[in-house]
Amino acid sequence: MTLVQLRHLIELAATASFSQSAIKLHLTQPALSRSIKALEDELGQPLFDRVGRKNEITAFGLHIVQRARVLVDEANELRQTSVQLQKGEIGQFRIGMGSGPGAMLMTPLLMLMATHHPRAHIDVSRGNTALLVQALRERFLDALVLDIRSLAPSVDLKVEEIHEMAGAFMCRPGHPLAKKRRVPFTMLRDYPVASTPLSDEVARILVERFGPQAHPDQLVNLRSEEISSLLDVARTSDAVVLAIRAAAPDLVELPIAPALQAKARFGLVTVASRSEPPLLDKVRTLMREILQDSTSTRQKPAGQR
To answer: What is the 3-state secondary structure (H, E, C) of the chain?
Structure first.
């Protein structure tokens, strides 16, 4: 039996007339008769007694109609649920974020969900790239937002680059280095350097620009996955933080010599063989809005203003 047949049955039970029901259902009367007859044959019992021009529902038919209404209502609810899921109005979305994009995207994403998708459920996980990728592959997460330069190439992952963002060495406005027009890298080493774990690509750029002493294992004194904590340390101490410039517009970008010229490449990562979660497009749009460099927010050392 089909839902269409059950809808035919419910309509006929309401009108007790094949001709009236056929008109309402936009069917010919013979087509409706064949539909009801096929249902009766499958169920093995008559659903209506034909008494002259009347069609009286049988006791068996009355019970079947009651069950049919439940099934049709559930099907209608399922269809509505599907529409709501596609719009991101309901459902669950589990996303993992690396430290860099997480610092800029976490609060706007939670605000978006709370404001525009209050019935949906979102779980945000933070951690290093290896653990997040493992959770994605094991289906504990639906998608990742990462600096994709830290990701090892793999055929089972779909990687979508969203935006590149410039990295910088930064300090608080009152820092001893903040007023200098030029900061040699050797001078930077007089202060503690804070950073999230850096990718091999960034490590290569640092060594290429500044020599072996710039390798993260030698350079970084304060390392944490939580960039927000590192930024707070830089705001209240003489620590210098290496991070995405746009993550801390209130800090001063140091004019390191030679120039750093390093960028993070933020992107979305999903499992290639898996269907895209409905809410993922909301995240994609938000990333394009939020993860952008803004020259208007940059602070320069006092001597350069």
So the answer is: CCHHHHHHHHHHHHHCCHHHHHHHCCCCHHHHHHHHHHHHHHHCCCCEEEECCEEEECHHHHHHHHHHHHHHHHHHHHHHHHHHHHHCCCCEEEEEECHHHHHHHHHHHHHHHHHHCCCCEEEEEECCHHHHHHHHHCCCCCEEEEEHHHCCCCCCEEEEEEEEEEEEEEECCCCCCCCCCCEEHHHHCCCCEEECCCCHHHHHHHHHHHCHHHCHHHHCCEECCCHHHHHHHHHHCCCEEEEEHHHCCCCEECCEECCCCCEEEEEEEEECCCCCCCCHHHHHHHHHHHCCCCHHHCECCHHHC
